[in-house]
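Supplementary notes for students who missed Thursday's class. We covered one full example, reproduced here. Read the sequence, then the structure, then the short commentary at the end.
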Amino acid sequence: MSGNVYDELKERGFIAQVSDEVAVRRMLGGEVVTFYVGFDSTAMSLHAGSLVPVMAMVHLRRAGHRAIAVVGGGTTMVGDPSGKSEMRQLLDEATIRTQGQAIHFQLARYLHFDGKTAIAVDNADWLLPLDYIAFLRDIGRHFSVNRMLAAEAYKLRLEKGLSFIEFNYMLLQAYDYLHLFREYGCTLQMGGDDQWGNILAGVDLIRRVEGATVEALTFPLLKTASGAKMGKTAQGAVWLDKEQFKPYDFYQYWVNVDDRDVSRFLRLFTLLPLEEIRRLEGLEGSGLNEAKRVLAFEATKITHGEKAAEEARAASKSIFKDQKTAMNEIAPVKEEVIAILTRRIPRTRLEAGIPPAELFTEVGLTPSRREAKRLISQGGLSVNDERIDSPERLLTIKDLGPNGLMALKAGKKKIHYVAPE
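Structure (token representation):
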């Protein structure tokens, strides 16, 4: 390695497109560069796919550059059409503000905002007060409608209908770049590859308005080796918020990734030195399990902290050694494991009995009751290591084991416990 963070980003697989590779590599190998990435406030949490830009920001900041995280309180009110076949649901301002605060809090765990080397801003602060007519005269006149319609972000939508409000999104994102250039000297915008057209619009706007040259860099839009969207499971999104997706489940997501994804994910989602990653990439057969455990621990540590990662690793080790052994040994690690893996169910419900499809779906082991019933027909669901042979069988208080727990298992690896309250 040359020591240039651009080279590291490239070797780790972060770079899809770049405005001028020679220029960007030179600037990142020199004095402090101020760069930014935007995150629209479309939900209460970011998800695992969002970690690609977040981790790239972490690498640049560790190399001494200045990070600006833009929470899109303003752009979210318009809705980004990129990658969407239909118009996004328009959210009210209060909801956007609440979700933006939650995302700000999440980003702070990775970037440690100090107001100097890492800054968080909300584009609502400069977009909402804009005078629309003045904005059109000062900014809109620099945009060609023909060029905008040629952008990938709009091509997909033209067939099904593109609203006028969404058509403005490119102008607003470009204006963000201009504002940050003026206020903070920002000269590099980064984002997902579906944002390439929007980011280049900002580069061009700054050239036209300020006569300055700034740069752009995009990250690949990841899919797993199986073709699934990164950060998605049968149960839904892999949220970074621990209340929406428990640290243990987060750990298990990485442990269970496809063998073909391990190398790529180690490079993208951990801060391990590349030398160590190369060693792990050389492991084969059962050795891949070690690489997956390292990936899971490091990714969980970055998102939820070392203590949560250690607890998840201990719980996983305890449970997946052997189901029967785990049932006997779970008591000694009760504090670390039970709270992570157990859903408390009212005793009255357990006494009355709960259909297995209902309970397995409720605890998150299956995405739907229909899927649970399908797995039952294939012998894929069990309680206390006993196969459930009929969807009509009720799970009751009698199914609690000697340790007071009911062990629900889907397939060979997915497990959850139920206890009465």
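Commentary. Residues 5-219 form a domain with the Rossmann fold fold (CATH 3.40.50.620). The chain has a mean pLDDT of 87. If anything here is unclear, bring it to office hours.
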